[in-house]
Amino acid sequence: MVLKNLIKARKGHAEPLSEIAQLVDSGLLPGFEALPTVVLVLEKRSLKVAFANPSAESMLELSRRQLTQMVWPDIFTNADELVATIASIAEHRFHATHLDAVLERPGHEPLHVHAIVGFLEGAPDYVLLELFENERHLRTDREERINDLTAVNKQLIRNLAHEIKNPLGGIRGAAQLLEFELGVRERDELREYTQVIIKESDRLQTLVDRLLEPHRHPHIVGDVNIHEVCERVRAVILAEFPRGLTIERDYDVSVPDLRGDKEQLIQAVLNIVRNAAEALRERISQGDARIDLRTRVARKITVSKRLCKLALDLHIIDNGPGIPEEIRDRIFYPLVSGRDDGSGLGLTLAQTFVQQHDGLIEVESRPGHTEFQILLPLDC
After folding, report:
1. Do 260 and 318 belong together in one domain?
2. Closest Cα to residue 366, out of 316, 313, 325, 314?
3. What pLDDT, on a 0 to 100 scale, did the predictor assign at position 286?
4. CB 361 within 8 A of CB 342
5. Are 65 and 159 contained in the same domain?
6. What order of strands is seen across the sheet that includes strand 126-133?
7. What pLDDT does 369 receive?
8. 295 phi and psi, to 5 degrees?
9. What is the rounded CA–CA span in Å between residue 44 and residue 97?
10. Which tops the pLDDT comparison, 136 or 153?
11. How far is CA 247 from each of CA 119, 270, 283, 365, rounded to the nearest angstrom?
12. Confidence of residue 17 (pLDDT cuts 50, 70, 90)
């Protein structure tokens, strides 16, 4: 870590760092500019940013000039934990410490970082802050949990379907025989009840068939253009919701074809977009409902525990009310739905189809913004 080396190098150095940025620019503190990690030097009392390297400018989306006019709490809204750590460093309680934090900025996604905070002995008025993005580690952890959950769900679904299907056929057949054995007069009077049994049996049979659908059909692999998939889904949804809904495309035409099952991918994307459209019904009635389909190429990203040179990065974004908080962590579970009339199978099937392509689905949701991200390997 650069921080540990710098602390060692600075021990016993008598020259104060009253102008950190000038010292870095003059080469007295070499290496900061070229570091891939974020390095910030803060005045320990005011917490004003004295120096930021180019990596900090890139991650924080602020220029060095802007950063050096700000104090740490101005950058992040939840800076208390790091402020307390900096205060401890400033009081000489220890030379360096590290912690994991989620830093929040207005109008930006939360930033998951591993932070190292160090006291500079040669510059007692400053502390050094080094930030490492934790996103890859967090994505790997989430992916492992999702894979474990999917395996459990798959076994549960198969067992449940088996236990339901066998008696269900007997119940339906018994209701049909009962209806046939009734006399003409009794048949007219009691047919309503036998029909309820038959229709509900058929409904449950359909539900079981949908649960088993991903495991029944063969995986037909061919070259798939993701934009053809998106256009097919867009046409279907706009036919179902012809007024009040806009579906915008933001396609990267450089995205190459992927190897996969086109029909499964259409169904996966369709289930997500249809869920979004259903959640947007109130905005559709107001005429300002919007869904964005965005494609990008992700480079050097880990998907399904494999480092991929290239991956498809598909985002499906809507401006609806967001996923209810009480089901947000269970949204991919079977039979979990945010709508009273929902089956709770659409996202479960979408996740299954994507995982059959060695891909990953993630979701971030807040009121006014729900974003599903589908990652599919292109070159691993």
Report:
1. yes
2. 325
3. 92
4. no
5. no
6. 49-52, 38-43, 126-133, 111-119, 96-103
7. 92
8. -115, 145
9. 15
10. 153
11. 52, 13, 13, 19
12. very low
